[in-house]
Write a structure and sequence with these properties.
The structure is a homotrimer. In chain A, strand 3, helix 4 and strand 4 form a beta-alpha-beta unit. The first copy, chain A, has eleven helices and eleven strands. In chain A, helix 6 runs parallel beside helix 7 and helix 8 packs across helix 9. The longest helix of chain A has 20 residues. Helix content of chain A is 51%, strand content 18%. Chain A starts with a helix and ends with a strand. Chain A is an alpha/beta fold. Chains B and C meet through helix 5 and helix 10 of B and helix 2, strand 2, helix 3 and helix 10 of C.
């Protein structure tokens, strides 16, 4: 892993990260992308997603709030990204919670080539055909450990899978990386999972040939930013605000020393 | 009223609060719900709202930005909630401002059983068939006092009605509770009314058999959080951020002593 | 220019500013409008936009996220505003980036009377038929200088044009005003351009007969607020929050002395 070097590259290249995401977090993921140093572009109209996805550095699909025409736009964008060699990152928000979300996540995985899936244990377990416990769109648990789940899902889905939780696990089906960075206040702000996915897209844009590392580096970076933001936070509001400051102020020179990664 | 006890229960049970709300405040109401201690789930697709509403602790409908298919989704969700015994809270944003909003609010009240309506004086007066003065979606005034209006509307609509303003009034048609908590900075942030409604949904989820108290407790809690947030605020921005911190840090042990409620 | 006097008038009259804008910044532009002292109303349903636009002080159209029915709603609203003498402000977000956005911006300019266009150099160059360099929805540059571009676009489009950048240029086709207020942190927060457009709508509402001044005053006010917010900001998060505080705390008595305007 070369988190600091990839972060420095990201800030220099400022890759376009095209995001088709849910209404709840659009502003948040755009601002997290921008604070980190990449350029977000949010667009969902069928008439324009192919144009944008094909020139982007990465495409991020997030199914947090769905409608039929958004699903179609996601599929169009994903195919255009595939054709142009642009990596696609999928956040299967709420897979397992409703049939629409489970079916949509599976359909996207079936009809397009996804580089990285980033989800919680229940979402990933659902997609991997394993047992999970869900409340609303929150993961309560899965029968597998995070490491086993990430590995099995990556093998089954044929892509890199990141399972986030107290400890995050990222696997390509062979190797598993465990990331211990982060802070519990991340669970008190809506959309932090979606932000982690957006940042995964940013790293996929600069390290598309190393998706396992890109996914792990994104979670290190986001976790370290969470640790920094927590330092002066008085609750979810100040933590949320501090998160953008922290992403912006991350130092590529020191981040590798702060990474808590077990292989 | 047992605000502290109900807040403690809420944080222990973490009820799912399904919200079909407007684009402007989705992130804000999700975060207010989460900061308080409940679990928000935001979903509007016709294909999934019934599944979610029927397993939620409460359903919150907010008509702040409407489209035809959102109206249909709200009705489907409300009927599913009714069938499952899940309380439904309605925020009739802008009723009286346009025909679409007035008609939609009335249609929801006519086709589903609503437990609590939370609105400003002009919105409630419009629904109760009384005179109101409106600018855009802001209430300028109503011919009735808040107490009279809440009582008349509750009697007419057959549900609990909360009319918020400098002093809030909550009625079930018989009793009227006046809540004096709050702060004028609440009027400088977009979506604080919608947040009050989301929090009403949180309390409805843990005290569904006592809707009058649930509605009043929610306004006490939100008002006290506003008082706390105002203490170090320098304007609407820092106040808004402080509101999430304050909701998160509310102490069930002291909140009853801080409630300003007149019966 | 009489920025202080117009700001004082705005706070006294509290004009309604009807905004049909993109999903990413709805909350942000509503809160910027409210913090400044005007009343935002966000509505996009075809069934209600004419009612609202015709009673508003100004109508703001922003094409940052498009769908077909939003385009139709924008055209309906613009025509209703025109018929009622309500000034219309257009933010052509991403014109030049995709055909849909370029075509939509041109269609709105062709089918309705626009008082003020506020965009970045690439967007304005696209609409004026001049050369521009674009990445995603970000402007990299235009072949003309800001002053020349604003003047040529205003002459060509027949309305006031504001081109924002490190220095902003506003022209009515004859005169050009250059505004040097602002801060580089404005570029680190998503939606600050959209906020500048919303504030342009606020000033258009109180100075509709002086659109050149209204556009320039809005950029002075937003720039000064940016300077104030930057003072204690630690990054994009605290800057963003401070921007609302700064807009709220702007002093009409001192703002003219702080304006950096060259004619």
């Amino acid at each position: 892993m070369r988190t600091g070097a990839d972060l420095a590259t990201l800030r220099e290249r400022k890759p376009l990260v095209h995001q088709i995401t849910n209404y709840v977090v659009m502003n948040e993921t755009a601002n997290a992308t921008l604070a980190l140093g990449a350029l977000p572009v949010m667009a969902h109209a069928k008439e324009e997603v192919e144009e944008l996805a094909s020139v982007a550095g990465a495409l991020v699909l997030n199914i947090g709030t769905l409608s039929q025409h958004w699903i179609e736009a996601m599929l169009l964008a994903a195919r255009a990204a595939n054709a142009a060699g642009v990596p696609v990152v999928l956040d299967p928000v709420g897979a397992g919670a409703t049939r629409l979300r489970t079916d949509t996540a599976k359909r996207i995985l079936g009809e397009a080539e996804i580089a990285i899936v980033r989800g919680n244990a229940a979402e990933v377990a659902t997609l991997a055909g394993r047992e999970a416990e869900i409340r609303g769109v929150e993961s309560i648990g899965a029968s597998d450990s995070g490491a086993d789940l990430a590995k099995a899902a990556a093998a089954g889905l044929g892509c890199v899978v990141a399972v986030t939780g107290a400890v995050d696990h990222v696997s390509d089906g062979a190797q598993v990386l465990a990331i211990g960075n982060g802070h519990e206040l991340l669970g008190t702000v809506s959309g932090t999972g979606c932000m982690a996915t957006a940042i995964t897209g940013c790293f996929a844009a600069v390290a598309s040939e190393r998706p396992l590392e890109a996914a792990a580096e994104a979670l290190v970076v986001f976790g370290v930013a969470g640790e920094d933001a927590a330092r002066e936070a008085k609750g979810p509001g100040t933590f949320h605000v501090g998160l953008y400051d922290a992403l912006y102020n991350l130092d590529p020179a020191t981040i590798d020393a702060r990474a808590k990664v077990d292989e």
